[in-house]
Amino acid sequence: MPHPILYSFRRCPYAMRARMGLLLAKRSVMLREILLKNKPADMLAASKKGTVPVLILNDGSVIDESLDIMQWALQQNDPANLLCIDNPSIQSDIDALIATCDGEFKGWLDKYKYADRHPDFPEEYYRQQGMHFLNVLEERLSTSNYLLGTAPTLADYAIFPFIRQFAHVDRQWFEQSSYPKIQDWLTKHLESDVFSKVMAKYPLWLDNHESFLFE
Ligand SMILES: N[C@@H](CCC(=O)N[C@@H](CS)C(=O)NCC(=O)O)C(=O)O
Prior knowledge:
By secondary structure, the chain is an alpha+beta fold. The chain has helices spanning 13-24, 41-46, 66-76, 88-113, 123-143, 154-169, 171-176, 180-190, 193-198, 205-208, and strands at residues 5-8, 29-33, 54-56, 62-63, 212-214. Helices cover 55% and strands 8% of the residues.
């Protein structure tokens, strides 16, 4: 049985979360590393959106949303119960947190990251807006080790790549900021085996059309 194909870009937070979902579900795929400035025709033929990640299943169907890829994998095998299948109330908290991350927070994150392209306000303004979400996370992490309790859920893995980006915009600011719980939580994820595996470097697919087993 051939493996599904995953078009991915190492540094994309959406692709990171998809790779983590696949890894945590122990779902092997053939990884094709791309560059956003030179997208392979095969990837665009599969998904016209032109975003990564894109997963092509063996039956030819395509999943081109990172969260859908995580869910597809974890619905088949979720040894750590990241989807919290027996707890609809936690599930709706997970969905709500991820929706805020991908919606409002991501909007401010992009403006903070590229403040020079958004001269209406200074960088600090965009950071301040993004901090509303950080405040919510800090409060949650003040009462438990993970966002939804004592164990990680889909929300932790889906959200931390974006907090990592936020922290990287101005590391000095982040390190002295009043977010000690987020700092610990982020460090824990960044130092995890899962993260170091998903951040392994692969040669570009377009260089020699070689996919790599990702498992
Ligand atoms: N909603 C999509 C967003 C994916 C996305 O926007 N990925 C970015 C890279 S981080 C991308 O591919 N952008 C296209 C481009 O820059 O050309 C998902 O969750 O998969």
